[in-house]
Specification:
The chain is an alpha+beta fold. Helices cover about 30% and strands about 25% of the residues. The strands form 6 sheets. A 5-stranded antiparallel beta sheet has the order 6-5-19-20-21. Strand 12, helix 7 and strand 13 form a beta-alpha-beta unit.
């Protein structure tokens, strides 16, 4: 893997906004503007690297499913969600409720060592539009002769088709929380709605706060009092359980099919890291991790069990004593072995490896100036050092995206 320089396209900002990436620019309190999308550089993989990393992501996914079963037993406690939510997650896992997607975060430097898993964002992963769409159109404009590690869009359509076939359902509600103001959640939900529509679903958009309960139907309903039978939601399960309607979620017989399903609470929780290390100690792609305290670790990163975007992370390592602000931590902590991020001329990348239906389907890379990948990181596109595939199927399907 190499980081190479590239000249930004004229009008690149308008291009990415037309593709749905409307949340790229953040205005700081002092007036400075920070751009999330960065096409002044790109990362290039070899075909062998991609194949190896795909195998790693798929193995990690299988291991995470086993770790989820272990967490569902309660062997590591209520993991910050409580016994009722844990029981709901266990029932959902046992029932085999269908899921769609997830994103691993990996450390990888391209110098021969094994990739190291940092976490699995398997309930409400974002970074989807830039990984599935924006970087692909960048490739067509800048390096149309090259390949890219990116089959995310096509994989999502396949999975939504499979979901429809398995359930016999045809109407999908798509929900996000309007509290998130950058537009990222809204556009991610809109993109998922588009992918499901291309798979044959009739989709209906709704805000999470507009989901209602009909006591006569004994079911969740939308603003038109239409019963919700299947719903994609971009809102974490652990927060859903704390909402006023949370107790209704425990009544599985009266619930819609939730995507992602309740068992994803077990994979999006940082306790997963400790469960993996307990089940697979010394696995080359894992970092040692422990619940509640550092255990034998001398250098560690403390992660709140429900943390996101680097909030409240603490780093204790030689030359580093860092604690990020945020609102997490009361739910408990996982301590993971500290491992420095790769350094490419002061840029520190993390690979986001996307998994759909257990298959590794693409990569999105975020890089930071420091040791934590937070709100102010940059998304950088990727290529594969190989010619573009001969099939034109990718081009036609992505050209149909209307956000």
């Amino acid at each position: 893997m190499k980081r190479l320089l590239s000249s930004p396209r004229p009008g690149w900002k308008q291009k990415i906004e037309e593709q749905g990436l409307v949340f790229s620019t953040t205005t700081m309190d002092d007036g400075r503007k920070i751009d999330y999308w960065n096409e002044s550089a790109y990362y290039e993989f070899t075909e062998d690297e991609v194949e190896q990393l795909e195998e790693t992501a798929e193995e990690m996914h299988r291991m995470c499913l086993e770790a989820a079963k272990f967490l569902a037993t309660g062997a590591m406690g209520p993991i910050g969600i409580g016994p009722q939510a844990l029981e709901l997650a266990a029932e959902s896992l046992q029932a085999g409720d269908v899921d769609v997607y997830g994103r691993f975060d990996f450390i990888y430097d391209g110098r021969g060592g094994p990739a190291k898993m940092l976490e699995y964002n398997a309930d409400t992963p974002t970074g989807l539009i830039e990984a599935a769409v924006a970087q692909w159109f960048w490739l067509q404009d800048v390096f149309p002769e090259k390949d890219q590690w990116n089959g995310i869009h096509e994989a999502l359509i396949r999975q939504w088709k499979k979901f429809q076939y398995r359930t016999g359902m045809s109407t999908l509600h798509v929900a996000h929380s309007e509290v998130e103001e950058s537009g990222e959640d809204w556009m991610t939900a809109a993109y998922m709605r588009d992918a499901a529509s291309q798979a044959g679903w009739t989709t209906i958009g709704i805000n999470m706060s507009d989901i209602g309960w009909d006591p006569n139907l004994n079911r969740f309903v939308d603003m038109d009092n239409f019963m919700i039978s299947t719903i994609f939601k971009l809102y974490p399960w652990e927060l859903m359980m704390k909402e006023p309607f949370g107790p209704r979620l425990l009544e599985r017989a009266h619930n819609p099919r939730w995507v992602e399903p309740a068992w994803k609470m077990l994979l999006s929780n940082k306790a997963l890291l400790a469960a993996l290390w307990h089940l697979y100690p010394d696995h080359p792609n894992l970092l040692p991790a422990f619940l509640d305290n550092p255990g034998p670790l001398k250098e560690w990163v403390a992660k709140p069990l429900h943390g996101r975007e680097g909030d409240n992370i603490k780093i204790h390592a030689p030359g580093i004593s860092l604690e990020q602000p945020g609102g997490y931590g009361r739910e408990g902590w996982c301590y993971q072995q500290y491992h420095p991020l790769p350094d490419f001329d002061g840029n520190h990348p993390v690979l986001g490896l996307w998994v759909v239906d257990g298959e590794s389907v693409g990569c999105g890379i975020r890089e930071s100036d420091g040791p934590i990948t937070d709100y102010f990181c940059r998304f950088v596109p990727n290529t594969i050092d190989a010619p573009a595939p001969l099939s034109a199927g990718t081009s036609s399907s992505k050209a149909g995206i209307t956000l």
